[in-house]
């Protein structure tokens, strides 16, 4: 199979997914310190589906209080801009592809949300922005989804090579000529996400080799590592990314507690998947 450049990949219109206008406008607010949460709520209110899903999340056990909120404006006041923005992003992205042949969409988003939750917890310990950490975690493997939706035959070849024991990054370079991390970063670039998010996605696999060092790429690496663990004992695992942990000031005990919390509680965002 011939290799394709990222430019060629995204030159096909069907390979660049469309997102709702309200999500596009919300992405623009990442770099705008003067964004008014009420004006954002007004924009959200123009999309009925996203409004419904945002209210569902705002009234969930994780974010809800004794009083249920009935409007996005009330939700905005309760949650604040950063949480509200992640809710709208999640609601818009989950609806981006109603289905993808031979791909477990529900499982994909469940993993993405869990990595996001782990990133949020780890970010607080590392003195990074927790909600930005969640955004990076939620988006970390968006490139994998795009590849499966846009190039199902190549994705099937990839999956079979990985199932046979080949390292995913090696298989991606062999089959595509680029990795899902590069696809995700380029998608984030084309959607005009801030550079900090683009770098987190692009450098998530090799955060120690990236220049400049991205704390958020390191957080994604560590969160994805934890999400893959089927169990977590009190003793630090032999493959624990110690250098990253030292850089982020995250010890194994804290990471294990974060893992336990997410394993036990899951993600409030799972309700977007019909759970």
Name a few traits of the molecule.
single chain, 275 residues, mainly alpha, 16 helices, 0% strand
Provide an overview of this structure.
By secondary structure, the protein is mainly α. It has 16 helices and no strands.
Shape: globular
What gyration radius follows from the Cα positions, in whole Å?
A: 19 Å
In terms of structural class, how would the helical and strand content be classed?
mainly alpha
Note the gap between the termini. 39 Å
Helix content range:
55-70%
Number of helices: 16
Mean pLDDT: 91
Instruction: Please provide the ordered H/E string of secondary-structure elements.
Output: HHHHHHHHHHHHHHHH
The stretches of 5 or more residues where confidence is low (pLDDT under 50) are none
- Beta-sheet strand percentage? under 5%
Main β sheet profile: none
**What's the total number of strands?**
0
Quick synopsis:
The chain is mostly helical and 275 residues long. The chain has helices spanning 6-11, 21-27, 37-44, 48-58, 72-79, 81-94, 105-125, 130-139, 142-150, 152-163, 168-175, 180-190, 195-202, 215-228, 242-248, 252-265.
Question: How are the secondary structure elements laid out?
Answer:
Blueprint: H1 6-11, H2 21-27, H3 37-44, H4 48-58, H5 72-79, H6 81-94, H7 105-125, H8 130-139, H9 142-150, H10 152-163, H11 168-175, H12 180-190, H13 195-202, H14 215-228, H15 242-248, H16 252-265
